[in-house]
Write a sequence for this structure.
């Protein structure tokens, strides 16, 4: 009987991985798919470039604010009880934005409301996947490998987004909004059928005790935990800043638009996606290896970024952004695994949600800061990106070695 149960768990785990991977894919599509469509939205709605940028920004801001709340709730009422309603809210947001764009004149503010709801949904979806993976598997190798697949799904969403967004908008400009609830529905069905979230036997802490307990964890593990928060934010900041730069130079210098532009954007992202998958498979439960891969990945980001100062030839830019993409793809799965495996099950939702918030801050800050630097300090932007990545690399080298200290002392 024991053997039968074990086999069933393996089967469920494989379907769980597939189902859980759909969440970061859907959430990434729901945001990044609109990036190549923004010029069309600006033209159709007759709004300023700042207003159209808010369609992306409002999504990230709401997610940043609400991710810690979602993490707290997932620790107390269960992961699936947060994920499924969140996907429903994200789908409703897509419906509101799509119908407004289709049927309402001067629909900008209603579209923005729909995007805000999507941000609310995003807060309780992908960030909760990380602790749920930690709950589903007892073996650290399986946790690391699965988190690599989850991160690969996230990056694959970034590869697919510009191509799919441009393709759908080629029919009617608001179809990308309408596609979001369809993707959410598919993910909801998969999660409901295949993901069996383990039940917690412990009684949740009252809110005041929970806050105090969280402060204690942050203080106890501050040597490495703050470093992971910082590195995660910097890696996503550099990624979205460099994607903005590539998108801008392709359109303004080389007049490459629509699906062709999406294909060029997908090249460094494809390298990022493949590297994430390979890294997740290789790191297993070796925390020292995770630290070194993160450090080497950050050095690769610096190498690819600093080279951008020397030429604006398209293939030169693509090659060195691909090197930076490999570095980003190598650093993300170890960070996910380190923070998930380094925190006890009862606090995973809260701590990993703070980490996810930091990543969202990087996502939100990258494009506008890069736009300002490109306008006022041409070429200086790459030195800035290298400088902050170098600080992240130093943090990875000196701080991540402290992860096991609290367990061994």
């Amino acid at each position: 009987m024991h053997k039968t149960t074990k086999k069933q768990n393996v089967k469920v785990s494989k379907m769980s991985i597939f189902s859980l991977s759909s969440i970061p894919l859907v959430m990434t599509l729901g945001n990044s798919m609109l990036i190549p469509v923004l010029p069309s939205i600006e033209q159709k709605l007759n709004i300023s470039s700042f207003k159209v940028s808010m369609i992306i920004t409002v999504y990230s801001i709401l997610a940043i604010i609400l991710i810690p709340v979602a993490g707290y709730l997932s620790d107390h009422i269960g992961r699936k009880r947060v994920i499924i309603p969140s996907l429903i809210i994200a789908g409703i947001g897509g419906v509101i934005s799509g119908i407004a764009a289709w049927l309402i004149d001067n629909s900008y503010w209603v579209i923005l409301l729909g995007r805000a709801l999507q941000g609310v949904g995003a807060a309780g979806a992908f960030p909760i996947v990380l602790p749920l993976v930690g709950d589903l598997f007892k073996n650290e190798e399986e946790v690391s490998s699965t988190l690599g697949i989850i991160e690969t799904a996230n990056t694959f969403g970034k590869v697919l987004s510009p191509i799919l967004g441009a393709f759908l908008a080629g029919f009617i400009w608001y179809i990308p909004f309408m596609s979001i609830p369809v993707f959410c529905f598919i993910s909801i069905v998969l999660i409901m059928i295949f993901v069996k979230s383990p039940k917690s036997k412990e009684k949740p802490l009252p809110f005041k005790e929970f806050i105090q307990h969280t402060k204690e964890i942050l203080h106890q593990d501050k040597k490495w935990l703050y470093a992971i928060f910082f590195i995660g934010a910097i890696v996503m900041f550099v990624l979205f800043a460099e994607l903005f730069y590539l998108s801008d130079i392709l359109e303004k210098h080389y007049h490459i638009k629509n699906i062709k532009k999406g294909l060029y954007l997908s090249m460094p992202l494809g390298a990022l996606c493949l590297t994430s998958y390979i890294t997740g498979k290789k790191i297993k439960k070796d925390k020292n290896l995770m630290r070194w891969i993160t450090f080497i990945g950050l050095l690769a980001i610096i190498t690819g970024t600093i080279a951008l100062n020397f030429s604006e030839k398209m293939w030169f830019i693509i090659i060195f952004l691909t090197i930076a993409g490999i570095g980003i793809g190598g650093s993300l799965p170890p960070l996910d695994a380190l923070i998930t495996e380094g925190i006890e099950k009862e606090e995973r939702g809260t701590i990993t949600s703070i980490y996810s918030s930091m990543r969202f801050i990087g996502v939100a800050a990258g494009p506008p800061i890069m736009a300002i630097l490109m306008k006022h300090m041409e070429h200086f932007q790459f030195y800035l990106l290298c400088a902050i990545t170098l600080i992240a690399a130093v943090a990875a080298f000196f701080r991540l070695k402290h992860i096991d200290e609290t367990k061994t002392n």
Remarks:
- The chain has one domain: 14-192+220-408.
- The radius of gyration is 21 Å.
- Residues 14-192+220-408 form a domain with the Growth Hormone; Chain: A; fold (CATH 1.20.1250.20).
